[in-house]
Amino acid sequence: MSGPPQTGGLEARGAIRALTLPPKLRDWFAAKGWSLHPHQRAMLERADDPATLLIAPTGGGKTMAGFLPTLAELGEDPPDGLHTLYVSPLKALAADIKRNLRTPVEEIGLPIRIDDRTGDTPASRKKRQRADPPHILLTTPESLALLTSYEDADRTFSGLKRVVVDEIHALAESKRGDQLMLALARLQRLCPGLRRVGLSATVEDPQAMARLLARHPDPCDIVLADPGPDPDIAMLETEALPPWAGGGAAHAIPAVMAQIRKHRTTLIFHNTRAQAEIFFHKLWLANDDGLPIGIHHGSLDRAQRERVEAAMVRGELRAIVCTGSLDLGIDWGDVDLVIQVGAPKNVKRLVQRIGRANHRYNAPSKALLVPANRFEVVECVAALEAVRDHALDGEPRGDGPLDVLCQQILIAACAGPFEAGALFDELRSAGPYSGLSRADFDDCLQFCATGGYALRAYDKWQRLQQRPDGRWQLRDPRSAQRIRMNIGTIQDSDRLKVRMRGRGGKPLGEVEEGFAATLTAGDTFLIGGKIVRYEGLREMTVEVSRDAGRKPKIATFSGTKFATSTQLSARILDLFAQGDWPQLPRHTAEWLALQRAVSRLPRAGRLLVESFPHDGREHACVYGFAGRNAQQTLGLLLTKRMEALGLAPLGFVASDYATLIWGLEPLEDPAPLFDPEALRDGLEGWLAGNAVMKRTFRASATIAGLIERNIPAAQRKTGRQATFSSDILYDTLQKYDPGHLMLRITRTEAERGLVDFGRIEEMLERIGGRIDHMRLERITPLAAPLLLEVGKVPVAGQAEERLMAEEAARLMQASGLAALQQAEVEGSPPARG
Amino acid sequence: MNGHEFTLAGVSLVALGTGALWWPDRSLLCVSDLHLGKSERIARRGGGPLPPYDTRDTLNRLAADLARSQARIVVCLGDSFDDLDAAHALPEEERLWLAKLQAGRRWVWIEGNHDPGPIDLAGTQLTELPVAPLTFRHIARPGASGEVSGHYHPKATIRSRGRAVTRPAFLLDRDRVILPAYGTYTGGLRSDDTALVTLMRPEALALMTGPEVHAVPMPR
Predict the structure, then answer these.
(1) E strands, A737-799, where?
(2) Is B194 on the interface with A (CB under 8 A)?
């Protein structure tokens, strides 16, 4: 809704057409004492433009600005049929908007029908919506994609005039945005006069966002709302010094507790779910006043999340420990402080999070940063300066990914026969795919039709077939159901549900399958702020029981590991270049000064490599400042090269700014290690067998429709032996069809994702061969914290076999079965315990 | 042959790292659940067009085991084909390859639940094969002894220092051995599944396949 009264009347006079709000609506606004913000008026004036992007801060009445033209056009006597489609990234947001929009409509008594449609909507209501759509339909990208896949989509959408994409900045960061733009391209073909509106938080490159939204090559005007006052943001002072390494920020618990007491409602953001869990647990132990504090993250059970959300809206919670799951613009009530624990890694995300506090227009948001360790102090200071300079960061998004395109071709086939050329033109009208080549399109079409293998197969069983008239259609119309069941780009197939043991046990949330596989009965871990004990795996559910202990042995579920952005890394290097550091706390400034005295500080445009003996081993520390994922990849590539050069590396560990490698031989000359060609070659070989690639392959193959996440109940087999791991498909393709489209897609994805070779390339370019090698006698102040980092990677190809042999021998001895065995097998050496 | 030696009903057998069972005294190689033609069947039923190289890969591995062992008898323990249509639709090239592997050997197809019925390929088709003192059949029968079977696709997981390794595995006790699935596109059933826990004796072993075979107490 629009905010407190401002100057300026309600008579919005459009430049092109006098679009006015219905008198009843105008009166209602006036009665509430509300008036239109300038950007809301601007949106009314641009109601006829084919595409408009509105960029406004949180609390700026952004959503209302998107809907005003709809309310004006529908007037007091709207004709039947769908007029406006609203798409948001969250089901909860769609439901929230429905409530907010219905209030004025119902209070005024306007005959406008508003309904939402998400994965949670009952089937009966969904059916009704298709036959008799409301005036305004609120939905998500996935539900919209599904709607466009029905044969009667043209009827459902006939008469559609406007589409409003909310929180488009959040969608644009993932494949959900690519899918949405493809769906809009389809809608535009069904409804040629369709006008698009995007609503976005502050972003670094509005033009790029506008290109994404508009039908290519249509123009897209950008309306910039007043960004409001600068946030009130600082680093949290703590009595205890931050530790040298780690991400828990346990030292800050008392200071955070004090802040919670001083404020009405505090949001405490963490970068990973695991850190949120641990912090919440420790906060509870320190919560002597018993303040109501909740936890909220994406792995918690929906019912539990909804309880926390409801309590928050009612203003019953004093603090919520959360992750990115609370990033988006639902109105959470009266938040007056945002605390970010751990370095923000990315300035744009930080600014968007800060906006969660003081959800009122023209009031500054208040935020505190809590660095979790000494290096993060530097990073937080750099981030504060970036916020002050309004310097947002962001990596440009590459071309639209082809796995999403494959899914779109299948969706089109579900809706009915299509002509390849017409579909190609339609797909290219979507912003992310405006540069799509015909060759790539043809590869995707072949893949959808036959799998596109070098070996001709499935001639009889093609998924798509060409009809005599040249159009493509599903060979078996029944496969439409299977395709529809697998629409979407969100990957959650590798999660297992966690629930309390016993009949009707309470669902608690989810953990990653890989984590569940490492648990044995009796292990304890944290979920939803509770310590639970692992009891066993039952079908696809992890069963746990309550545990009275206060110290969980294990606490991991690897949430997203954000890498520090390029801009923030550059700012840190600039900060290092200062003569002294008045803006840093003394402990951190002294630490950097010591590093400068005994070695040197990393510099922009050069690469610092330190080598030194420590603890009986040789070490090499490479300060690449390329972000965690790239530094990790660099570690794998460098140790491979070092192995070949006879330096006998034993292992490495990576952080956002450096990779530390240890081994048996000293590194004398690092230059040959950084030959770009050799590194690229190493990447080729290493990528093929890599677990990261397999994970990436699984995600892409699922989106592209090669692997089905969901299969119809009638075809589901009992027993799990019917399904097999996607790793097998990856290995088979590598072996027999290495040039296949799916492998190409996988490589592109991995290079910009977890492998992040792009940033290694960027680093190599930045340093241009200028390597400063420091040979030292002992470990340096900057390198030392790396030894305390978790996630050390051993370098040993035979490691798995060796571990297995060791463990097998131990288990056989322990169980007494070894003795039994030996008695039966002749010729084996005797083994007696 | 490289593998794990054990005795069943007094017979000396070797569990190979490839998932095949070798009986040296009879020069008999036994493999289970080849599921040839699986990708074809999935496509036929409207699923995704999976890489059509599974049959080729399975036969590649079988050919290697045959070359190493020089087996005179081959027993395929059932579910050799993903279904009977897949058996009939086997491409000519793969059919010829199979015939070449069969040449000069006694070849027995045990029927499985996926391929119960006649197939137009050389070799003898049986519901079960007794070779005293052992019996080869597709699905284990509770109470039997000296029994070699498949069907369940057993796999086992062991954990060491926070790392879990899961592999297809033979399950072995003094009455029976259950073979892992040999086919390329096959998944596994965890050894702690009720079906396997009730079937196998408490002191059963899991023989984990891979470059080396590791015997561990069957995880249950």
Answers:
(1) 771-775, 793-794
(2) no
Residues A472, A464: contact at Cβ < 8 Å? yes
DSSP string across A187-204? HHHHSTT-EEEEEE---S
Phi, psi dihedrals of residue B189, rounded to the nearest 5°: -110, 125
Q: Beta strand pairing status for A337-341 and A524-527? A: unpaired
Residue from A484, A781, A779 nearest A615 by CA: A779
Q: What one-character DSSP code corresponds to residue A73? A: H
DSSP state of A60: S
Cα separation, A39 vs A22, in Å, equals 19
State whether B187 and A476 contact (CB < 8 Å).
no
Amino acid at A802: R
B159 at the A interface (CB within 8 A)? yes
How far is residue A236 from each of residues A65, A69, A688, measured CA to CA in Å? 36, 44, 45
- Helix, coil or strand: residue A35: coil
- Decide if B99 touches A, using CB distance below 8 A: no
pTM: 0.84
Per-residue pLDDT tens over the stretch A751-800: 777 678 888 888 999 998 899 999 999 999 999 988 877 666 666 434 45
CA of B164, closest CA in chain A: separation in Å?
5
A332 Cα distance to chain centroid:
21
- What ipTM goes with this model? 0.93
CA-closest candidate to residue A115, choices A159, A77, A84: A84
- The amino acid present at A586, given as its one-letter code, is R
Round to whole Å and give the CA distance between A753 and A801: 29
Q: Is B22 on the interface with A (CB under 8 A)?
A: no
Instruction: State which amino acid sits at residue A725.
Output: S
- Dump pLDDT digits (tens) for A331-359: 666 788 999 998 888 888 888 888 776 65
Which residues face B134 on adjacent strands?
B131
Nearest to B78 by CA among B187, B209, B183, B211: B183
Measured between beta carbons, which residues in chain A are less than 8 angstroms from residue B56?
736
Range of the domain at B19: 3-217
- Angstrom distance (rounded) from CA A513 to CA A232: 41
- Tell me the residues of chain A between 526 and 555 that have a Cβ less than 8 Å away from chain B: 536-537
CA distance linking residue A733 with residue B171, whole number of Å: 30
Question: What is the CA angle A572-A574-A577, rounded to 5?
Answer: 115
A292 forms bridges with which residues in the sheet?
none
Instruction: Report how many domains make up chain B.
Output: 1
Q: Which residue has the tokens 């069943």?
A: B8
CB of A489 closer than 8 Å to CB of A179: yes
Q: Are A72 and A80 in contact (CB under 8 A)?
A: no
d(CA A527, CA A533): 10
DSSP A720: G
